[in-house]
Structures are given as C-alpha cells and as structure tokens.
Design brief:
Distance between the termini of chain C: 51 Å
Number of domains of chain C: 2
Chains: A mainly alpha (262), B mainly alpha (286), C alpha/beta (352)
Shape of chain C: globular
Low-confidence stretches of chain A: 258-262
Mean pLDDT of chain C: 87
CATH class of chain A: Mainly Alpha
Number of domains of chain A: 1
Oligomer: heterotrimer
CATH topology of the largest domain in chain C: D-Maltodextrin-Binding Protein, domain 2
Order of helices and strands of chain A: HHHHHHHHHHHH
CATH class of the largest domain in chain C: Alpha Beta
Low-confidence stretches of chain C: 1-24
Structural class of chain A: mainly alpha
Largest sheet of chain A: none
CATH architecture of the largest domain in chain C: 3-Layer(aba) Sandwich
Number of strands of chain A: 0
Distance between the termini of chain A: 25 Å
Number of strands of chain C: 12
Largest sheet of chain C: 10 strands, mixed
Radius of gyration of chain C: 21 Å
CATH architecture of chain A: Orthogonal Bundle
Strand content of chain C: 15-25%
Largest interface: A-B, 98 and 98 residues
Mean pLDDT of chain A: 84
Radius of gyration of chain A: 22 Å
C-alpha cells in the first residue's frame, strides 16, 4: 500500500511537471508583456507601457472582441451539429458510413492555407461576399471534424445496451438521447466544444481571406503584423485573454460538475 | 417489419448527420474539390491564362527526388511528435482521471486545455525566446550552474519537436482522459483484489479500454503535424524545410496553385493510406 | 470605444467646417490594400487625411505579392488603392486588375523624380498605371560592433570566418539575385544558373537561420544569432533609429533596387478619392513625418530634399556612386519564378 501511495504522489509530481511544460511559453508571453524591450531582449526591465498602448489601440481591441464572439458562435454551432452526427454514427449502421467518417480527415490533413484559399475561390465564385457570415461558415466547417472525432471517441466507451434498455422501457429516441446518451458523453461534448473554440480562436487563414477589410480578428492582426513583426502589445492582449479565460474556467469548474459524471 | 425499422433508422440517421455534412460540403468539400480539379491543370484558371488538363503536377512529385525526401521527413516528424505526445500525455491523463478526485480534477483538466486557447504564433515566438542562446533556458542554467554553459536549441530539429509537442500535447491528454474516465474503477479494484500485478492491469485492462481515446488523439496529432509549416519555419531555421513548407511556397512565393494542390493531395493520400493500413491492426489490438 | 467616438466627432466637425468653407466636399470611404505598417496605415496619416478631405481610410493587408494579386482577383470592387511593387505592376495590368490613373488632379505628381515617376514598369503603354511612391534597396546589414572593418564586398557572406553567423531570407528569388550579384551577373537576366546554384550551395552552411520579418531580423540580430544578413534599406533605417548597431552595406558588386507604386484597381468606385489619397501619400509633408520613424526613400524629389541632412536614406541612397551600383528589379515571369523556387527548394532539401 505504501508503494501505491508513493506512486500516487509521483504521479502528481509528474502532472505538475507536464503542466509546467505547458505553461512555459504562456508565462514567457506574460512576462514579456511587462518587458520594455521591443525586441524581447533579456534581462527584463519592468514596464506597464504596453498595456497602456494596448488600451489606446482600438484595432487590436476590436479584433480581440470579434475573435471572441466569432469563436463563441462557431463553438455553439459546431458542437451541436457535430454531436448530432457523432451520435448518429454511433447508433446507426448504414452504407457509406466509413466514407463519411474518412471525409473528416481532408480538412484536418490539408494545410489550412490551401483550404483557406480554396474557400476564398469557391465563396467568391458562388457569390458569397466577405464578412462575418462567411468567416463563421468557414470556422464551423473546420471545427466540425474535431468535434465529431472527439465525441465519437467518447461514445466508443459507451455501452449501447444502455440505450436499448431505455428504449425497451418505452422511451422515445429523443428521450433516450437526452436522458441517457447526452449525460454519459457530456464530458466529450465539452471537450469537443473546447476544441471548436480553440480552432476558431486560432484560425487566421480563413478569417484573413474572408473577413471584411478593417474588421479583422486577433490572429489576422498578429499574422499580418509578421512582416514588420508584432510588439509586446500582442503579448499584453494575449495575457489578458488567458487570465480572463482561466478565471472563467476555474469558476466553471467550481460551480459546475463537468469533466466528470461522478 | 425489419425493413421499415431500418428505413426509419436511416431517416433518423440522415436527419442527424445531414446538417453537419451539408455544412461541410458547402464550406470544405466543394472548395477542396475545386482544388483537386486545379491540381490537374497546367495553370490556375484566372484571367486569360491558357490552361489544359494534365497529370504533370503529380508526375513532378516522382520526377524530383527531393519532394519524396521531404515527405518522408515530414512523416517521420509526425511519428516522432505523436510518439512523444503519447508518452508524455497518456500517463498525465491517467493521473488526472484515476488518482485525482473531485473539483480539483475538473480544474486541472481545464488548466491542461487552456494553453491551447492562446495564439499559436505568439506561442511559437515565446518558445523562440525560451530556446535561443542568451534566452530563458540559457540564462536560468547560467544562474544555477557554477560553470558557464551555452545552450542554444533554437533553429534545430529538437526545437521544432518541442514546439510541436507543446502545441499538440493537450489533444492526446484530452482524448485519453475522456476514455480513461469511462473505465469503471470497480473493474480495476476487482482485478487488483484477485491479485493481478500492476503491469497486467495496465496492459490488459487500462490500455485496451483507453485505446479509442488514445487512437483519436494520435490521429488528431499525426495528421496536422505532417502538413505543418509554421513551427518548422520559425523554430527550425535552416533545418525547417519540410513538405508543408514546400507546399506553402507554391502559394506564397510563386503562383503555382496546381502544383501546390497536387502536393497537398499526395500528402492527403499518403496520410489516409497510413490510417487505412493501421486501422485493422489497431482494431485488433482493441 | 470612447476614443473612436472622439475621433469620429473631431472628424465630423472638421468635415463640417471644411464643407462650409469649400462647398460640397464629398466624403467617401476608401479601402487600401498594403503591407501592414507600411506608411499608409499610420494612425496620424489616416486622421490627417480625413481631416483634410473628409474621406475615411480602411485597410486590408497582404503578406506576399501573390496574396495581393489573389485578393484583387477575388474581391472586385473591394479596394480603391493598392500598393504594388513595380515588378508586379505589369502583371496586374495584364490581368485587368488595375487601370490607368488620370494624374491631372494629382498635384504632387509633377514633383516625382523623373527616373522613378517615369519608371517603364509603372508606365506600360504610355499611361500611368502606378504612381511611384517609395523605393529602396535590398542589400545586407552587418553588426558594426562585431565586424570591422566594414565589408565592401558581398563575398563576406561566404567568408569562412562567419560560418554559422549569417542570416538569410527564405526567398527563392532574392537568393538567386544575391548569388547573381556575387557571381557578377545581371540580376534580371541570369545567364549562368549553374554558377548561381553552386554559389548558393556553398552559402547554405554559412546560414544560421532564416528570418522572415523585420521583427525577426531585429530580434535575431539583437540576440546575436547572426552578425550579418540581407536586409531592406527602409527597415535598416528603422533598426538604426531603434538603437541597434546596424551598418547597411551596399557592396561594390551592387544591390537590388525596388520601387513601390500606388495603383487604383480597375473595379474601384471611388477613383476620385483614391487619387486624393495618392496625392496625399506622395506629398513631402506626409513623407517627412513618416521618415521620422524610419521609412524607405521617397520617389518625390521635393520630399527627398526636405529630409534632414543626417537622415539614413539621404546619407545612404543620396550618394550617386551608390545609386550607380544598384540594379533595379524588373518583372519576373511565372516560369522563371518556378525555376528559381525549384532550384532553391532542392538545395535546401538536400542540405537537410
């Protein structure tokens, strides 16, 4: 038993090390937002000047706001459609299922630059103009495969007999979904939603080609700044976003029971 | 009776699947189909350009040895990164799912995903600051070690691997966690009470049951890493030439969409082939 | 938000005042397609232009010339002014993406340096398809604290002493042109491609890393990753202004000259406002202010003359001996680009 406790402790230490690795660049990003040097030179000389500059930079602030609401909209749509498709894949056998599932990989495998260019040409040729709707259509499409794959992975651990039992007790298809399937895969759906948000929030090619001029998203601002290079203002806005999302997530973890059904 | 049931099932399946797939068709499949068409043209059909249908773009891949060389290099990179992600991520997911209980687990689970919400370019540039000479690692080592060291990992293969592993690690932690969490603790307790050694529990119960999640994570890592171009370019310096960067050049440096598209579809074909060949093996393992 | 509102308020007031004075001022929104942070999108310039004319300026950006052309092709009517490198102006015109500009109401047009304003690439068919705006050199910068005496030959990039201390831009065309200079060839008509290839082959071991942005260049330079690397003159001016120990070298073998022009897309619906904007952009007053923070050289002779004597552009590019060594970049055909790219990719792949 002592061995077990030792291993458990070792496991926690390990988890801590991995978390530290994950947060190295985030910390560096945050620290550099307080560093005077525009060229990210060490050693660090403290300043809050980049935050003051950011406060007056309406371009970055507007872009950050666009990114947030576009990512939220994308997350809701992609998670809903993706979960429905994943459940159908799990529940029903039909011809062409394997092909439909294999079709999820092209959008992931083909570099986004090429997919983005393809979307630009296609949307242009069918007369769908640039703007937020076009951007959202593109983001949802890129997020969908991730949602479907993640939710499907979670469903693989689900016993179909549970659904059958509920059905044999006279529950309708929708009731089965709502009261048996969805609660079981809730953590998978949340994970899928987090993926969808991440995909949209970080997606620059599609927004870059499809957003209305003068109304861009944060990744586009960062990407287009790359030739001249971006200033620590970008670090500052990224730090603010991470701090806000971290607080929201920790609050959510405090008050909602997700990520686990027990 | 059974046929009407099947038909009703088919209808239900269709109503649940079609919204997602209609969306995908309009926004991704049709545009990519257009790209597939371009890949068989001699020129991108714009303005008054003369074009004809040809397989020359695909032939070029075989005629020029260096494309194949870079493709192999990219596939190797994909395997290395996926391997590291699994080795690092799976134990992490296990600790999270099986030894930590209550609110802490949810909080930690979210903390794992959060870095993922920051911008990838900003993340890569932050790694550059960490890895370069006179950078964070170098300075920290100089502080704690009594002798002078010079660490400069920047612009090397390891730098690319570190950057990519960092970017994709949350994928495998996430999907493994979801699968591990679904394993009934009673099953493990029962095996243990019957005297099964730890290693046997791991290989006979935990890994087989967690395999769907592990595989989903591995696929979600391997597939995009093979085509990646951002991380190699910025972190790899001179060793950052991969299949993805060569494709990117066809769109950015020259106006050669047909060749760029052909190379992308070759990449896609090879990736799908690898997945198809490995899926029976993986299914049997399950 | 409140800042925006304040600006809008100011601008509205200014429009009103101007409107009463001048009569009917027609306020439009014009859309400009340019590199980010390349003069036209300076906050003060956009504000000043709005104050003067009432027109609002909105920007969209590109990250490579190919992207600029793609954006023009797929967004008819979306842009009113576009920045095009003179080597691409001909192609844009040929594809019908831009149309000739009536310069009669561009009052500053007459002040353009004749050799720049009259650049043949910008004036195909005897019509002005692009108004010469700024120009500069692609040569290389060295760390003057570490490298002395300052090199005078491009061969220094191949010097054993600096193996692993050279930065480079991962660009096929530029690499070929540098190798052409180093092998004594015309950058616009490379006769001996094999010599270029073997020259580049020996260059690769010299290279520490590739840089892709001005910021990269500054960071790598500041961190000591490289001691010398190809660079743009305008950017070098900015790096020097920021206090980096950069010396911009124009070697005896020559350097690559480029010229950026402002064009009006064929589908623009605000041509008059676009011309007003171009006129403002080539105005000496705008340029001198822009040059304070580091800018490429102006095509306007009066603007160039208005610079302070110690200005980087004036000191470096004002020297006739330097200008005589410059080879100006001419249009490059798609075929040539493909050949160069393939050569460069193969070299890099084999060096892995």
């Amino acid at each position: 038993m002592a061995m077990g406790r030792f291993l458990e402790r070792l496991g926690r230490v390990y988890l801590g090390v991995v978390l530290a690795f994950l947060y190295v660049p985030i910390l560096v990003m945050a620290v550099m937002s307080f560093n005077q040097s525009e060229f990210y030179q060490l050693p660090i000389r403290f300043t809050t000047g980049w935050y003051e500059k950011l406060w007056n930079n309406s371009e970055i602030l507007n872009a950050a706001w666009s990114s947030v609401w576009i990512a939220c909209t994308t997350t809701v749509i992609a998670t809903t459609l993706g979960t429905a498709a994943a459940i159908a894949f799990f529940r029903y056998e039909f011809r062409g299922k394997v092909i439909l599932q294999a079709l999820l990989f092209p959008p992931i495998a083909i570099p986004w630059l090429i997919t983005g260019t393809a979307m630009l040409i296609f949307f242009f040729s069918i007369g769908l103009g640039r703007g937020a709707p076009a951007v959202i259509i593109g983001h949802v499409a890129l997020a969908l495969p991730y949602v479907i794959v993640v939710v499907t992975a979670r469903l693989r651990t689900f016993d179909p007999q549970l659904e059958e039992a509920a059905r044999s007790l006279g529950a309708s298809s929708w009731e089965v979904t709502r009261s048996v399937t969805l609660p079981w895969i809730a953590s998978g759906i949340i994970a899928g939603a987090l993926f969808a948000f991440a995909v949209s929030f970080d997606q620059f090619v599609v927004s870059y080609f499809l957003a209305e001029p003068g109304d861009s998203t944060l990744p586009v601002v960062i990407y287009t700044a790359i030739r001249k290079g971006f200033t620590p203002e970008i670090n500052a806005i990224s730090t603010i976003i991470i701090v806000i999302s971290m607080s929201l997530m920790l609050l959510a973890a405090r008050y909602a029971n997700f990520g686990g059904e027990r | 009776m059974s046929s009407t049931l099947a038909r009703r099932d088919g209808l239900r399946a269709a109503t649940m699947i079609s919204p997602a797939y209609i969306w995908l068709t309009v926004a991704v499949f049709l545009p990519l189909a257009a790209m597939l068409f371009f890949s068989f043209l001699s020129e991108a059909p714009f303005g008054d350009r003369e074009w004809f249908v040809t397989a020359a773009n695909y032939m070029e891949f075989f005629e020029k040895g260096f494309y194949l060389k870079l493709l192999v290099r990219s596939l190797t990179l994909g395997l290395v990164v996926t391997g590291f992600c699994i080795l690092i991520g799976f134990p992490c997911a296990f600790v999270l799912a099986k030894t930590i209980k209550g609110r802490w687990r949810e909080a930690l689970f979210l903390l794992v995903i959060l870095p993922f919400w920051s911008n990838s370019l900003v993340r890569i540039f932050s790694w550059a600051i960490v890895l370069r000479g006179n950078g964070v690692i170098d300075s920290v080592l100089d502080l704690i070690l009594p002798f002078e060291v010079s660490v400069n990992l920047m612009f090397s293969y390891p730098a690319i691997v570190i950057g990519l592993v960092h970017s994709y690690l949350p994928y495998v932690i996430l999907t493994s966690y979801l699968a591990l969490q679904a394993i009934d603790d009673n099953l493990i307790d029962a095996a243990r009470s019957m005297g099964a050694p730890r290693r046997m529990i791991l290989w006979r119960i935990i890994i087989p049951l967690a395999l769907p999640g592990l595989i989903a994570g591995a696929v979600l890592i391997f597939v995009p890493v093979v085509g990646s171009f951002m991380e190699p370019r910025i972190l790899g310096g001179r060793s950052g030439t991969f299949f993805g960067t060569v494709i990117e050049d066809q769109f950015v440096a020259v106006f050669n969409w047909p060749l760029g598209a052909a190379l992308s579809f070759i990449l896609l074909g090879v990736v799908l082939l690898i997945l198809a060949v490995s899926s029976p093996v993986l299914r049997r393992a399950q | 938000m409140s800042i925006n509102a304040k600006w809008t308020g100011c601008a509205a007031l200014a429009t009103l005042v101007l409107g009463m004075g001048v009569g009917a001022v027609h306020a439009d929104e014009i859309r400009v397609l340019n590199w980010k942070g390349y003069g036209t999108d300076s906050d003060w310039a956009v504000a000043e232009f709005k104050e003067k004319t009432g027109h609002t300026v909105v920007h969209d950006y590109f990250n490579s010339e190919q992207e600029m052309l793609t954006k023009l092709r797929t967004n008819p009517g979306a842009y009113d002014v576009v920045l095009i490198n003179s080597a691409f102006t001909g192609q844009a015109l040929e594809e019908g993406l831009i149309s000739p500009i009536d310069t009669s109401d561009i009052s500053n047009f007459a002040d353009l340096a004749p050799n720049l304003g009259g650049n043949p690439e910008l004036n195909v068919g005897g019509k002005v398809n692009g108004v010469a705006w700024v120009w500069g050199l692609t040569s290389f910068g060295v760390n003057k604290d570490e490298v002395s005496p300052l090199p005078t030959s491009i061969q220094v990039l191949w010097d054993d002493q600096y193996t692993g201390k050279v930065g480079w831009r991962d660009d096929a065309l530029e690499s070929v042109q540098f190798a052409a200079l180093a092998t004594g060839q015309n950058i616009n008509d490379v006769k001996d491609l094999d010599a270029v290839k073997s020259k580049l082959e020996t260059l690769l071991p010299q290279i520490k890393t590739f840089w892709s942005s001005e910021n990269d260049w500054n960071q790598f330079f500041a961190a000591g990753d490289f001691l010398m690397a190809p660079y743009w003159s305008g950017s070098a001016g900015r790096s020097i202004a920021k206090g980096l120990p950069v010396a911009f070298v124009v070697p005896e073998e020559g350097a690559i000259g480029w010229l950026d022009g402002l064009s009006i897309p064929a589908t623009s619906e605000n041509r008059e406002a676009a011309r007003e904007f171009i006129n403002y952009m080539i105005d000496p007053q705008f340029y001198v202010k822009w040059a304070e923070s580091g800018a490429p050289a102006s095509a306007n002779a009066k603007a160039a003359a208005a610079l302070p004597a110690d200005d980087f552009n004036r000191a470096t590019l004002g020297d006739p001996a330097v200008v005589a060594r410059v080879q100006f970049m001419q249009p490059v055909s798609d075929e040539t680009r493909k050949t160069y790219l393939e050569l460069w990719q193969e070299l890099k792949a084999n060096a892995q």
